[in-house]
Amino acid sequence: MVSKIKKRGKRPILLEGIKESIVQRIQIGTYVPGQRLYISALAEEYNVSTMEIRTILRILLYERVLFCTFEGEITVRENRMTPLYRLDFYNFYCRAIEETDEMKWAQIRIQEEMKSILFQMLELLKKGDYTKYHQAKIGILMILLTDANRFDQEMVEQELRRWCYFHPAFYEDNLSMLEQDYAQYVYIFEKFIQNDKKAILHHLKDIFIEKVK
């Protein structure tokens, strides 16, 4: 069955109305994403399917209107960030137009954020600043965990592998450290998908927190 929203165009008035309604309800605390009762109520109110309501919620996350914390709590950003597909960079804009699926918007966003932090990590390794390196590594982990429930594990592992080898010639001496970090990220993802929070916290304590010697 073709989606009612897709039938009416790319970004119809109806879609925008539903999005704003969800944002307002989260702000005043009367709508908690993930609860079937409210999703069903919105679907009935706007005469769309519950699947479309969930899709709209994901779009709001990818457009950076909403923010998902490590604990899974969703809130409205006080200062709304510019959605990636609206940035004035020609390459990003063209890719977003070609790939209209909201999962692709999220993938582009997280790739760019990860690339930026990875570059910083490589520079810190080059300078021998291991304390800041571990801080940057924790930053990457938090970005990934925030988006883990919206990406399949295979895609994430492919991206992590690519990031770990992003510039092998640039810093060959530290490839082994990056490889170890990659293995740690995969382990964290496996536990996150299994909802094993105890194992995640234990792993963070033992591996990702830099101890002052």
Automatic annotation (TrEMBL):
InterPro entries in the cross-refs: Tscrpt_reg_HTH_GntR, WH-like_DNA-bd_sf, WH_DNA-bd_sf
Pfam family for this entry, one: GntR
Name of this chain's protein: GntR family transcriptional regulator
Gene Ontology molecular functions: DNA binding; DNA-binding transcription factor activity
Organism: Listeria fleischmannii FSL S10-1203
Keyword annotations of the record: DNA-binding, Transcription, Transcription regulation
Matches recorded under Gene3D superfamilies: Winged helix-like DNA-binding domain superfamily/Winged helix DNA-binding domain
Top-level division of the source organism's lineage: Bacteria
Domain HTH gntR-type: 16-66
